[in-house]
Amino acid sequence: MIDRTELWIVIIGLALGSFALRFFFIGFVGGRALPEWLLRHLRYASVAIIPALVAPLVLWPAATEGTPDPARLAAAAVTLTLGVLTKNVVLSILGGAVVLALGLMLGA
Amino acid sequence: MGATTPISSFGAGARDSLPFILVAGPFGLLFGVLGTEAGLNVAEVLGFSLAVFAGAAQFTALQLLQENTPTVIVLISALAVNLRVAMYSAALTPYLGGAPLWQRAIAAYFIVDQSAALSTVKFETEPQMPLAHRVAYFFGTSALIAPLWYAMSWLGAVAGSRLPLDSGLDFALPIAFLAMIGPALRTPAHRVAALVAAGTALAAAGLPFNLGLIVAGLAGMMAGAQAELWFERRKAAAG
């Protein structure tokens, strides 16, 4: 169970932190240029953090106590492939959900 | 002809945002459902969506909170996922930087993927657009999407508490994230960043406090930046 104090610290911290990130340039920096090396790293932040978060969840799902699961692996592969090929987020989610449902049905 | 008053620019922004209803709606619903599954009540789910207003960061925080991750790591990880809004803020500054501070402060809250993407394209293609129209257009792009995000989070939270515990629901979050990764792998450097980050995360999974995620994220960012330089040099050399 998530601790209530921790939850609200995270909600308020994220709210303030996200606002700071959003306000920083438009509010403070204005037209001044940032160092190129910093921008170059910022460009890859979300495309690095999200795969880092997802990879262990795909390979070692908590629902199977960390044992790799064919249905979840197949659903992940289909979702990612659809996303790369179609660039359509909604279609990718639907494709992955269908494969997961089928896989869990076959496996059960 | 095109927009002639700030109100029509506002309307144009709202109209251009219509396709994003298909993204924000289901994502908001999913956040509500998963939040409820994680033990949040309706007020906490809605508070989360209202205060933070950033889908991927909210999902990240929710996942890590369930893994008993130290609060500092939850915050750093979720803010790292959200670093791209700082990039959007930088991209919008040349167009909206001249607006009064109070307008920029409100606009900052609404900087998300869809408002930034729509606005930067619009402002680039219509450089003659007056500042007041630009501000109106920017707010227009969130006029439908933001209320929809709150409403669907709320609906998901209300419905989620009545849903039976489905065996596959645990995997809804990885699927949502994977679906976001696909379209983001725009260049070879983006693909290098994602691969290095995923590989490092698996190798560093044993680190305490979920620190592996931070290490992997930094490794991915550095790999992406270096790959970008490398591909640029190769392109320059090929002339």
Sum this structure up briefly.
The complex is a heterodimer of chains A (108) and B (239). Chain A is an all-alpha fold and 108 residues long.
Description:
The complex is a heterodimer of chains A (108) and B (239). Chain A has 108 residues and is an all-alpha fold. Chain A folds into two domains: 1-32; 33-107, no CATH class. Chain A is 78% helix and 0% strand. Chain B has 13 helices and no strands. The longest helix of chain B is centred in the last third of the chain and has 28 residues, at 211-238. The termini of chain B are far apart. The chains are: A mainly alpha (108), B mainly alpha (239). At the A-B interface, helix 1, helix 2, helix 3, helix 4 and helix 5 of A face helix 2, helix 3, helix 4, helix 5 and helix 6 of B.
List the keywords.
heterodimer; A: 108 residues; mainly alpha; 2 domains; B: 239 residues
Low-confidence stretches of chain B: none
- Average residue-wise pLDDT of chain B: 90
Subunit arrangement of the protein: heterodimer
Structural class given helices, strands, pairing of chain B? Answer: mainly alpha
Q: Mind summarizing the main beta sheet of chain A?
A: none
Topology summary:
The complex is a heterodimer of chains A (108) and B (239).
Chain A: H1 4-29, H2 36-42, H3 45-59, H4 70-86, H5 89-107
Helix pairs in contact in A: 4-5
Chain B: H1 6-16, H2 21-37, H3 42-52, H4 55-66, H5 71-81, H6 84-96, H7 101-109, H8 113-125, H9 131-143, H10 145-160, H11 172-184, H12 188-203, H13 211-238
Helix pairs in contact in B: 1-9, 2-3, 2-4, 2-10, 3-10, 4-5, 5-13, 6-8, 8-9, 12-13
